[in-house]
Amino acid sequence: MVGAKIGWKLVLMAFTIVVSLVANKAVTTAWKIGSGGKPPKGNQAGYIEIITWAVASGASAAAAKRFAEDRAAKYWLKSTGSLPPGYEDKPNS
């Protein structure tokens, strides 16, 4: 069981890293297209621009994490025939 938990954490970490890199590139590119410049860093911009970037990048990170976990769980299920450690089979409501 310990090996399965470690294996699951490694699979989840790999999926999360890849998806996060893609999401970060996508939100950065969308910002550049939409604003015509690079995303704000430090005190290079006003509060509105910094808050807008924080919301956009935060939402992107949250969506990426959820997507990565879902895809990793499906991969784990397909590869092992069982749900990842810590997951329960929940009936559809």
Automatic annotation (TrEMBL):
InterPro entries, sorted: DUF4235
Top-level taxon: Bacteria
Protein name from the UniProt record: DUF4235 domain-containing protein
Species in which this protein is naturally found: Kribbella koreensis
